[in-house]
Amino acid sequence: MYYMFGFLFLVFIILVITCSEATILLCYFHLCAEDYHWQWRSFLTSGFTAIYFLVYAIHYFFSKLQISGLASTILYFGYTMIMALIFFLFTGTIGFFACFWFVTKIYSVVKVD
After folding, report:
1. Is residue 91 assigned to a domain?
2. At what angle do helices 3-32 and 39-47 cross, to 10 degrees?
3. pTM (2 d.p.)
4. What is the number of domains present in the chain?
5. Is residue 109 part of a domain?
6. Is 86 inside a domain boundary?
């Protein structure tokens, strides 16, 4: 029982690192292509992890669950949408701050002569 929180924290750290690295990589590619509108793109790049979460929840509903009532279905999808929105905001914020740190670091070493 006590190991669950350690594993959950480890998965959280892996999620933060993965979202940060993927967003920094895609931001770097866009900066190399001279596309400097990275703010919203960095938020959305990492935030679209929630779309996978939502698609998996829908698949899980139709393949594993045996929910038959309308009220239960509405509750399931309502709470799933709330969790997906929170997950979208959380991962999007991680991606934005990682990209912001990256852009600040690479432009701080640029020397203008």
Report:
1. yes
2. 140
3. 0.87
4. 1
5. no
6. yes
